[in-house]
Design goal:
By secondary structure, the protein is of the alpha/beta class. It contains 15 helices and twelve strands.
C-alpha cells in the first residue's frame, strides 16, 4: 500500500473487543494469569504491553524490519543498541553525530571499554581505513546533526557486509516517511521518536528497528533486561503522531525548501545547510536515498553574538532544544544539541558559534519568513507581547 495509507493504518487498528479505532492505553503493570504454570503472552509490563507492542509493530512495518522496539527516549534506544557490543569491541562512528550520542560513546561506553573511532563517513575510503580486526559496527547519521553532511547508505552497507559488521543508522531527521535505511542494506535503525514521529513536542520516546529476526531477538533480550521501556501513554501518543506524519512532513518540507532558498539570498547569512539545495555537498547522493530534503536546516551568521541576538529577537519559532514539532524550533548547537562536545572538537567539526539550526513547523511560510527577516535585520515592527499578570502580582 501507499505510505500514506500505511501511516494511517500502521497496525491492526480495529480493537478486538469493541472495535475502537484507537489502540487502548493499557495502563497496567501486571496481568492476571489463569494458569500459573503456563503464562500468557503478557505477564509483566516491562516485558510486554499491548499499547507499546502496537507501536513496535507499526514502526517495524514502516521501516521494513523484522522487529521494532520502543524505549523511554532516543538515547535509551541508542544506549540499548550499544549494549549489543562487548568491552574491547570497536565501532566506527560518524564524525558528525548528535552531541548526546558523542557524549554516551565517550563517557559511559568509554568506561565500558568500547573503543570508538570518529570518522568522516562522507568518504568511504576513510571508513575502510578505520576498520580493524576488533571492529563490530558502523554507526552513522545522515543527514548528520547539525551540519547535514550526507553519508552514502548503500556504500556503508556494502562496507559493513564486506567486513561482517552491523550497520546502524540514526534516521531521526528523515523519519521512515522520507528515508528507510533497512531497505538500503542497514541492519538497525534508530529514532528519537520525540521528534517527527511524535510530532507535537509533547513526549519523549525512542525507537529501534532490526532488519532480521536474529538481531531482533538479541535486542529484545537487552530491552527486557535493561528495562528502558516506553510507557503506554507515550506509546499511544507516538501512534497518534504517526497517523499524520505524511501530511506534516510534506507541508514542513515544502516550507523548508522555500525558507532555505530565501535564506541563501540574505546578506546576513554566510551559508545555508540543507540537503535539497543545489550545491549542498552530497546533494545527489541524498536525493538518491531519500524522498526529499526534510524539514530541518541550518544556517550560519557572522559570529556568536550575532546568532544570540538573532535568537533573542525571533517571536514565532521556539528557541529550544529539539526539533520535529508542529511549531518551528530554533536551536543553538553551541549550547544545546552539541554542548557535550568540547569547544575545540565542536569547532574542528565546523559547528561554529554563529551556527543556528531551524526545524520548520506548520506556520504559514510568509509569516515565518517575515519573523526571521525582522530578527535578522534587527527590526521590531510590532511591540513585544505584554506580560500576563499572575494572581500574585
Amino acid at each position: 500500500m501507499n505510505v500514506h495509507t500505511r501511516l494511517v493504518h500502521p497496525h491492526d487498528d480495529r480493537e478486538q473487543h469493541h472495535g475502537a479505532s484507537s489502540v487502548p492505553i493499557y495502563q497496567t503493570s501486571t496481568y492476571h494469569q489463569s494458569d500459573p504454570e503456563h503464562l500468557g503472552p503478557y505477564d509483566y509490563a516491562r516485558s510486554d504491553n499491548p499499547t507499546r507492542e502496537a507501536l513496535e509493530q507499526a514502526i517495524a512495518g514502516l521501516e521494513g524490519g523484522a522487529r521494532g522496539f520502543a524505549f523511554a527516549s532516543g538515547m535509551a534506544a541508542t544506549s540499548s543498541a550499544l549494549l549489543l557490543f562487548q568491552p574491547g569491541d570497536h565501532i566506527v562512528a560518524g564524525r558528525d553525530l548528535y552531541g548526546g550520542t558523542y557524549r554516551i560513546l565517550t563517557t559511559v561506553f568509554h568506561q565500558w571499554k568500547l573503543d570508538v573511532s570518529f570518522v568522516d563517513t562522507t568518504h568511504p575510503d576513510l571508513v575502510r581505513q578505520a576498520i580493524t580486526p576488533a571492529t563490530r559496527a558502523l554507526f552513522i547519521e545522515t543527514p548528520a546533526n547539525p551540519l547535514f553532511s550526507i553519508t552514502d547508505l548503500r556504500a556503508m552497507a556494502a562496507l559493513a557486509r564486506e567486513h561482517n559488521l552491523l550497520a546502524i543508522a540514526d534516521n531521526t531527521f528523515m523519519s521512515p516517511y522520507l528515508q528507510r535505511p533497512l531497505e538500503l542494506g542497514f541492519d538497525l535503525v534508530l529514532h528519537s521518536a520525540t521528534k517527527f514521529l511524535g510530532g507535537h513536542s509533547d513526549l519523549i520516546a525512542g525507537l529501534a528497528v532490526a532488519r532480521d529476526p536474529a538481531l531482533g531477538r538479541r535486542l529484545r533480550s537487552i530491552q527486557n533486561a535493561f528495562g528502558a521501556i516506553l510507557g503506554p501513554q507515550d506509546a499511544w501518543l507516538v501512534l497518534r503522531g504517526i497517523k499524520t506524519l505524511g501530511v506534516r512532513m510534506e507541508a514542513q518540507q515544502r516550507t523548508a525548501n522555500t525558507v532555505a532558498r530565501w535564506l541563501a539570498t540574505r546578506p546576513e547569512v554566510r551559508r545555508v545547510l540543507y540537503p535539497a539545495l543545489p550545491g549542498h555537498p552530497g546533494h545527489d547522493i541524498h536525493l538518491g536515498q531519500a524522498d526529499g530534503g526534510g524539514a530541518v536546516l541550518a544556517f550560519e551568521l557572522a559570529d556568536g553574538p550575532t546568532a544570540v541576538a538573532f535568537l533573542k529577537r525571533v517571536r514565532l519559532p521556539l528557541v529550544a532544544v529539539s526539533l520535529g514539532g508542529v511549531e518551528s524550533i530554533l536551536s543553538y548547537p553551541a549550547t544545546m544539541s552539541h554542548a557535550a562536545l568540547p569547544r575545540p572538537e565542536r569547532l574542528s567539526r565546523g559547528i561554529t558559534d554563529g551556527l543556528v539550526r531551524l526545524s520548520i513547523g506548520l506556520e504559514a511560510e510568509e509569516d515565518l519568513m517575515a519573523d526571521l527577516e525582522s530578527a535578522l535585520t534587527g527590526r521590531t515592527d510590532s511591540p513585544p507581547p505584554k506580560k500576563r499578570k499572575t494572581q500574585h502580582e
